[in-house]
Structures are given as C-alpha cells and as structure tokens.
Specification:
Blueprint lengths: L12 H20 L8 H29 L5 H4 L3 H11 L16 H12 L8 H35 L1 H7 L1 H11 L2 H5 L3 H5 L4 H10 L13 H5 L5 H21 L7 H17 L6 H4 L12 H4 L23 H55 L1
Helix pairs in contact: 2-4, 2-6, 2-8, 4-6, 6-7, 6-8, 7-8, 7-13, 7-14, 13-14
C-alpha cells in the first residue's frame, strides 16, 4: 500500500506507481504505433468527411444557382460545372460586366462567347450591390470547399495506396475506402467471405428480399467499381461475383501481408478483365501484351526448404512417372484399351455361362424330384388295393 514502508533497496511506492503508469502508457503507445502506415482509421474518417463535403457542396452550389439565377438565369445551362460557375461569378459580378472581361482562364473559348452573347439579351432582373456582395461571399465558400475537397481526395488516394494497394488496384481508391469504412476496419473486412464483400452495402435490400422470398441482390458498393461498370447489364452479376472473389484475396493480402506495393491485385485484375472479355465474346489479351503491366511478386520461401534436418521429402509429392520407365505412346495406350475391352467381354461371357449352368442344374433337380414323387404315389395306391 502507499503508506507501507518500501523494502530496503527498492523504490518508494509512489515512484513505483508512476513507473507502472509510465510503462502502461509506453506499451499502449507502442501498440498504437506498431504500424503507422496500416492505420485504417484515417481512411474511415476521410471517406466520411468526403461524403459530407459532397453534400455541402451540392447544397451550396444549388443555392448559388438559384440565387444568381434571378439576375442571370441563362448562365445555369451554359456553365453547368459548379466550380466554374462560382469562379465566373467571382470574376464577373453583375452580368453587364461580362462583355469586357477575359474569361479564357476559366471557360473554354466557345463557352465564353456563348455566355457573353447571352448576357446582352438576358431576361434576368437587376440586383443591388449588397445582393452581389452576399452572392460573392457564397461563391468564396463554394470555391474554398471545392479546393479542400480536392486536397482531401489526394490525401485519401495516398492513404489507400499505402494501406490497401491491392484493393485499390481492383476496385479503385474510392470504392475500396467505402468498403473499409462500411466494415469498420481493414481487418474486419479481411475476415469477410467473398459473398459478403459482394453485397456489402446492400443489407437492407438483402433482408427485404429474404423476408419476401424474392431474388437477393447481386451487388452492393462493389457495383460502383469500374470493372462492373464496363460490363453489359446481363453480365454485371457474374462480373461482380468474380470481382468480389478476387477482392477478398486482395484484402487479406493487404491486411496480413508485409508488402507495401500491389502484388496479387494486378494479376487478379487481369484475370477479371479476361473473364469480362470471355463473357462478351471477345478474344482474351495475350500474355505477352499483359506482361508489362504486371509487377514482380515477392518470392515465397517454404519453411521445409530452410530446415535441412526435417524428414519431409518434397520429391515424394511428385505424381510424374519415374524417368527410368518409358512413356507410353498413343499406340500402346490403344492396345491397352483393346486388351481391357477383350478381357471384360470374356468375363461377361463366363458369367453368362455360369448362370446357364446353374439354371440347368436347378431344372434337373426339380425333374428328378417329380419322378420320385410319382413312384411313391403308385406304390401307395398298390398297397391300398
């Protein structure tokens, strides 16, 4: 206890307690920093923030178009992109200034010419300077959020390539991050079978189909992968199943493997692409054409090869015929087949003859028994007389 005196040569109890707390904190810190490149919590938070930013951006851009549309309604159809729309308003202000401005750094030449023509004959209402000032402040928000979203997307791509390179090759960074976020972590996702990975994100539709005894969904979040998008509508279910099977392997390599680069993912993607071509009736890509895209995979060293003292012999696993025996040719195989057929025919004939012999013997026994019965009957009648 803290009040009891410390043994001779030992630290005081208060010092021991602080040392134990420090050791516990150091151990926890070590566990957290065990593999900083494999911390998938950053991916879960980043993809969640990216979705929130998209919602906010869409809301702000829609409000901006409605607000400025009272002044220049034709601009919404001429400049559909949200970021370009906001930057153009920032530079232009009111539509009357559009004619003398150079917007070539924002818009294409033909779009700029169309915008200037529309500004002269626009049917929009006039706005005050205070209204324009508030619209410009909203434009600044849209532009700043768009730039931050681009930075966040670059960060998410870099984290995905460091944490799950094989999964990123298979389905892309965005879909891969959504799968990890939906499962909770990369390790939780690695524990899921391929069938679960295939319909991850479509749980509501799955349980509704099971309850109503209808067809279950064929894909969930994996539907947004580029390989599924390339497939024809009738082949999307098959491709999503093949892709989910390869993704399950890639996820386990990413979660439990030591390599920080894509290894199995590149070959798996090539196989899925070949399967897609096969379903569509196209010729598969030759191995020589696909070889430059593939990266060398790390060599796998068996434990039995490193330990020479083990009694297990790898050569005993060989299923090939020994080199001393001569390999049978096509003619020898044909002769063997003919001999086997002849032998089977003889066995069939012998079995048939055996059955006939048994039948004759049985009939003979029955006939002799009948004759003895007749003799006994005649003798009995004679004794009665």
């Amino acid at each position: 206890s803290p009040t009891s005196p410390a043994p001779a040569g030992a630290a005081p109890p208060a010092e021991m307690r602080s040392m134990a707390i420090g050791l516990a904190h150091s151990l926890s810190r070590y566990k957290l920093k065990f593999s900083p490149d494999k911390v998938d919590t950053m991916i879960v938070q980043a993809i969640g923030l990216l979705d929130d930013l998209d919602k906010e951006l869409n809301t702000y851009a829609m409000r901006l178009k409605e607000w400025y549309g009272w002044h220049f309604p034709e601009m919404g159809k001429i400049v559909p992109d949200n970021l370009m729309y906001a930057k153009t308003i920032q530079k232009m202000g009111v539509r009357t200034k559009c004619k003398g401005l150079d917007l070539s750094d924002i818009l294409a030449e033909e779009v700029e010419a169309e915008l200037k023509d529309a500004a002269e004959i626009s049917m929009g209402t006039e706005v005050s300077e205070e209204d324009v000032a508030n619209i410009l402040m909203l434009c600044e928000q849209v532009v700043s959020l768009s730039e931050y979203r681009a930075q966040l997307w670059d960060y998410l791509k870099n984290r995905m390539n460091a944490i799950a390179p094989n999964l990123s090759v298979m389905v892309g960074e965005l879909v891969g991050a959504r799968l990890i976020a939906h499962a909770g972590s990369l390790m939780n996702l690695a524990k899921q079978p391929a069938s679960t990975v295939q319909i991850l994100g479509a749980e509501k539709a799955l349980f509704r189909a099971l309850k109503a005894k209808h067809d279950t969904p064929k894909y969930g979040l994996i539907y947004h992968a580029s390989l599924v998008g390339q497939a024809q509508p009738k082949n999307k279910g098959k491709i999503s199943r093949v892709l989910a099977a390869k993704c399950a392997l890639s996820i386990r390599v990413d979660a439990l493997g030591e390599s920080s680069t894509a290894t199995i993912g590149i070959d798996s993607r090539l196989k899925v692409e070949d399967r897609l071509r096969q379903l569509e009736g196209r010729a598969p890509v030759e191995a020589a054409d696909a070889a430059p895209a593939a990266r060398p995979q790390p060599a796998v060293v068996m434990a039995a090869d490193t330990d020479k003292g083990r009694g297990y012999s790898v050569a005993a696993d060989s299923t090939l015929a020994p080199s001393g025996k001569k390999k049978k040719g096509a003619k020898d195989e044909a002769d063997d087949d003919a001999a086997a057929a002849k032998k089977a025919k003889k066995a069939k004939k012998a079995a048939k003859e055996g059955e006939g012999e048994k039948k004759r013997k049985r009939d003979g026994e029955g006939g002799s028994g009948g004759k003895d019965g007749e003799k006994k009957k005649k003798k009995k009648d004679k004794d009665k007389d």
